Amino acid sequence: MTKSLQGKVAIVTGGNAGIGRATARLFAAEGAKTVVCARRIEEGEQTVRDIVDAGGIATFIQADVSKAADVKALIDQTVHLYGRVDCLFSNAGISGNPGTPIVDLEEEEWDQVININLKGVWLGMKYVIPVMQQNGGGSIINMSSIYGLMGSHLQMPAYTASKHGVIGLTKSGARDYAPDNIRINAICPAYIHTEMVDGPMAADPQLATTIMGLHPIGRLGTVEEIAEAVLWLASDKSSFVTGHSLTADGGLTLG
């Protein structure tokens, strides 16, 4: 059976842990030469070792997605190594400090969250789209959230604003670059078992009960479930899908 990303080159930002790591592994298992990008070197290189040990092809490139020079270098180095870029999963992101209302939010935190979660997505598109135009097309998947579709239950104004912005940017890019055969979509998970979620839940049983109760399906999602959704958007199986925000939320947004 032909693998869904056979012969393609994919970049995963925030590939050092959680959804990013699971997606990088899956991309490689499906035949992609996979570039794992992260700020944390040791964890990013561990993802690469996992892929190589499983028989895949992968490289680690350190980058801070909030810095234009880093993102440009990431794309340039990928092209130098593998000759092209077919898929970019802009997954890197931070939550900020949940429980901080707008009036108490510090400018420094606002800037940090927006710069990584939204500016980082824009920079990825800015530098990869010209490469994809030369390739004859490609697929970009941007990490949004259920809180790109609704207000947060946990007072996360900067995070919520950033994820709404990702959806707007995704739609804008999808319309502009569809004629170039570049598909741009967003993924909108609910609460997923990751370091970002499991740590606070373990520290606060009441918070854990609240978060669990938000999901009609009765549980949180897994990183592997989100990786499968991202893979579908990256592959030719979703060839008629662009500008879409794919919600994987266990029913949370049903209200």
Automatic annotation (TrEMBL):
Pfam families tied to this protein: adh_short_C2 (PF13561)
Swiss-Prot/TrEMBL keywords: Oxidoreductase
Protein's UniProt keywords contain Oxidoreductase: yes
PROSITE patterns assigned: ADH_SHORT
Signal peptide positions (record): none
Protein origin, superkingdom: Bacteria
Family from the record: Belongs to the short-chain dehydrogenases/reductases (SDR) family.
The protein, known as: SDR family oxidoreductase
Organism: Candidatus Litorirhabdus singularis
